[in-house]
Every structure is written in structure tokens, then in C-alpha cells.
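Listing 4. Sequential folding, example run.
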Amino acid sequence: MYREAPTDKSDWWELYEPFEETLSDGSTILIPAGYVTDFASVPMLLWSIFPPIGKYNRAALVHDYLYDLQYKQKELGEKEARKFADDQFLFLANKINSKDAFRHFIMYLTVRIFGFYAWRATKE
């Protein structure tokens, strides 16, 4: 479904086929082939605890895509749209593996606290 992206960054990955996922509100999102992601943006210092690539890749992929689109920002406003995207990470990560719900919640909190940097960077 994905391969290492042809960029100068070795930690980026490219979708080689479209990916579809159902969100918590029942809507479906289609991520096109060619989309590039780093999955979870985790500082290298924390990789042993929270690896950037893992069981939650689908959740991180959808989260990155929603951020890049600034999905639902026109409808909900910036704060609520960003929260919706963050909530999708938690929803999908728990859907994939509910046994790691605490780990996912810690990751979710981190995204809630620091995600505005990535959200705002998308605007520029």
C-alpha cells in the first residue's frame, strides 16, 4: 500500500494505491495514490516508546491527510476542524487495536498539544 517516498527524507512514505477509510462520523475519506506521509511525527528520542511506524499507520496516514486538507475547516472553524482530525487519529488507532488504548490516548494528547504547529504550517 505504501513505499518509501522518492524524497531526500528517508522517513517519508508514498501511497502507491488509493486508500479509503471510514471516519467516526460515518463519512468516508479517499486518500489518493501518490500522497506522501511520515506517518507519526515522533522525535527520534521517543522512537523506542512511540515508534513513528507501527500498528497505527492507517490512523496516522488519515490524520496527516486531514491536516493537509484542513478537513472541515470551512464548516467547523480552525479549532474544531483540527480537533476533529485529532479525534480521528484516536478513533482509528483504537479501531485497529483497542488493547493499546492508553498508548493511543497519550499519542492523541501529544497531537492535541503540539499539532497546531503542523496545522498552521499547512496554511503557509
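-- end of first protein; second protein begins --
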Amino acid sequence: RISKVMKLEAPDGNVYNIQVINDLNKIVLRSGWAAFASAYELKEHDLLVFRYIGDSHFKVLIFNPSGCEKEVFHIVMNHTPNLPEAGISHDRSFLKETRHRDCESRDNNSRKTKKMTPLYSPSLRSAEGVTSPEDTLNSGGLRETTKPRYVLAMGCNLTTVQKAEVNALVRKVRPAIPFYITAMNKTSMSGSLVICKDYAAKYLPDEDQFITLCHPHKSNIWIDNLKVITDGSRMLSVGWSCFVLHNELRESDICLFEVSKNDGEVTMVVHSLEGAHHLQGERARISKKAQISS
């Protein structure tokens, strides 16, 4: 369905005409591709996301190997007619379509309230690390099982304060898909995070897929390849490592993954709670202050 000329629209709004040929049922980009690659300084292992918008026209996002979007400044193309000559294109609607909500609008109450069942905090964890729902009695005296609002990874133990913070966040967000909650450890700090198979089988894609990671209070996004590993668990790697670095996560911090799906695209908004390191630091500060006072 692709014609002999493909249009690539770069993040700054410039459109490049690329000649293509079909080679063994694969589309090969020829004349014009070198100019595109040179203009945006593409390097080995850069990640490009192509979004087809019809009529052999694609919009392109460019990420570096760590999963962070490259900073692309507007490039003036005097030889191409009918293109903007200054400024940066802000048409990012195709990015927003991959998110269930705008990550920047978390605190201004712009989110529409969804009708959900009353909140019930899960209290039990199965052998696979998945929190079981609580049972409640209805008016007829029959037991009803309510949908859990969050799932704890095995080994993730919340303090009383953290539980209160989690419950408050659940009430605020009312997630359609239960939060996945895990504690940062040496493995997840070093660059890979595994999501348990029971949660993954129920709420995540059943094959490798690029997903979007974002912070609830920042506009940045990170792209990662969510991989299905041998036992059925899912793993985040390179993009997750970049997220950890840029958001200064530390060992024992608690991460809550808010998963949303839109037209097959998966977004994870990652909320974080300070872990034991913060409590130890606070205790040390108070102790030092007491010593100075004495």
C-alpha cells in the first residue's frame, strides 16, 4: 500500500520525500533517507517510531539508545516548498494518543472523574506476589468479590505511612487497571525491572511491545521495550534505566505503576514513594541536631 515515494514528517514539522523499493516483501528506504539521517544526526542504536497517518505519510519520533527523546531543533529546508521556516512544531497529538491521560495535568484537577466501585484496599498476597481482593457483604448477606485496586510484588512490604499514601493515591486516581507496586532493589536500580507473571498475564501485552513511561509531575517521556521473558514475567530494561537516572530513584523507594491502554498502546505512569533511605536520613538529621543542641 506504500507508494514509490514515502513522506517522513520529522518532529520539527519538516517533511522529507523518500524513494522506496520493495525487496522481498520489505520496504527499503533509498534516495532521501541519507538526507533525513544526516539532518537529525541519527546514530547507531537510535530508536525511531514511525506513525502512519495515511497516503504513504509517516510521522517520526526520534529517541536515543537510553529511550529518551532526542532534542530536535527546527531545520530550515529552503529547497522544499510549503514548509514552515521558523519555530518548532508542537503537533504532538500522536504522542498524546498513546497516553490515557496527560502526564502534566495530575495536580490541576483537569482529569474527569470516572465512575468506579467503592475503594477496597487489598490485604492479602498470593504465592506469586499478587494481592487478593477483599470480600464484602452485600445487603442480601451474600459475599461479593471486589476488584483489587493494587497488586504488591513479592517482597514488597509497605510501612503504615506508605500504605496510607498508597490508599490516598488510589482514591485520587481510581485506576481502571490495578496499580503494580514494587520496591526498588539492586537489580531494578542497575537497569532492569521484572513485573510478576500473574499481573503481566492479566494486564500487560502478551508479546514484546514498545511502551511509554512517564512521571506524573513531569512532561518528559521515556520509551522502553516491554519484553516477555521465559517464565511469563515481563521486563523493562534500557528505557527503565534512563527513567531511574532522570528521576533520581533510590534503593528501597516504592514505585507504583499506573497502567493504561489506548488503541493498543500501553503507557505506564510511575508514581514513587520515598523508601527507608529517606527515613534513615531523617533520623540522622534529627540525631545530629539533638547532639548540637546538647
